[in-house]
Amino acid sequence: MNGKIDNGAVLAGRYVVDSQIGEGGMQYVYKAYDQTLCKFIALKTPKDSSAEKRFIRSAQSAAKVNHPNVAKTLDYFEEGDQKFLVEELIFGADLSASLLAHVEAADPYITAHIFHHIARGLAASHHAGVIHRDLKPTNIMVSGGLKLEAIKITDFGIAKLAEREFEEAIDGGEESIGNSKTVLGALPYMAPEGIEDKNRISMASDIWSLGAMMHEIITGEKPFGAGLKAIPQILKGSRGAYPAFLFSNNQFRGANTEVTSVIDQCLRLDPADRPTADELVSACSNLCYPETQRILGRLRDKRYKWGFIAENPTNRDVFYHSDSFYGTPPVEGDEVWFAKYPSQMGADRAHPVIKLK
């Protein structure tokens, strides 16, 4: 087991460790300062020295991909008996912390926006011959918080480091799975062929994982559940119906129908029936979604079916109609997340409006 690195340590004669910023099941992640290029970077090192050969291969895989929706691999070096990967530092948090922790479910427009960006990054990786193997919300980095200023895939090939842990946990049953944060985090997004036989993992497995993520984002629910109970559902491709609220509101029915149709294609049981990443990019390009930046505010005036939101930080009035509510309707005083558009009525118009947790 490799130990943690002290703050202030200088590695490879140029990287000054600032602080630990993450710890996954297989690696430590540090913020460090590159004295040569005068910028902060992310520094990753495996926890388990027995996985170092696989760590090198994952670094080589990541270095092959160059795309705005993929975190850049900048360097690889060895210091003593430890291996290190240098990656672009994304000033933000993962998709789970940036979005899923704040909303019950995301509207179809923001879901399509996220879907499209991740699909582009995935297509670039597949063009480079690289399979991610572990797509999940915690491996998608977001800068700008709920503004979603940048969306980048990270941690290519890390799942290879955990193959033994996956096999032992699944063979050991529910207690073993419950004791493995790595397996618990990955299982809801794993493709059925990957659960049955790791040698069957392919680019189509990444497509399944992306579809599972998007299902969770648009519904607020993991498509097959979590833990050991999810395995038979994943293997059968058995999902329940989408929540009624996706289609009960005329304002969102059409867009949700289009987005869920693409999700359904990703979650086809036979890998050969799923779209390729290029086909997925094309499908997402046909989804109608605005690039209008989302902002925060507070519902301060609710009447019968309309009222006003106090926009942060200006406190200006933004008009809303309750038809623009997505998911659980907010009540007066609730913090909300919305896009605004010019209106001839005086105040700007908010749509959609989502209650924050």
From TrEMBL:
One of its GO terms (molecular function) is protein serine/threonine kinase activity. PROSITE patterns: PROTEIN_KINASE_DOM, PROTEIN_KINASE_ST. Keywords: ATP-binding, Kinase, Nucleotide-binding, Transferase. The keyword ATP-binding applies. Its EC number is 2.7.11.1. InterPro entries: Kinase-like_dom_sf (IPR011009), NEK_Ser/Thr_kinase (IPR050660), Prot_kinase_dom (IPR000719), Ser/Thr_kinase_AS (IPR008271). It holds the Pfam family Pkinase. This is non-specific serine/threonine protein kinase.
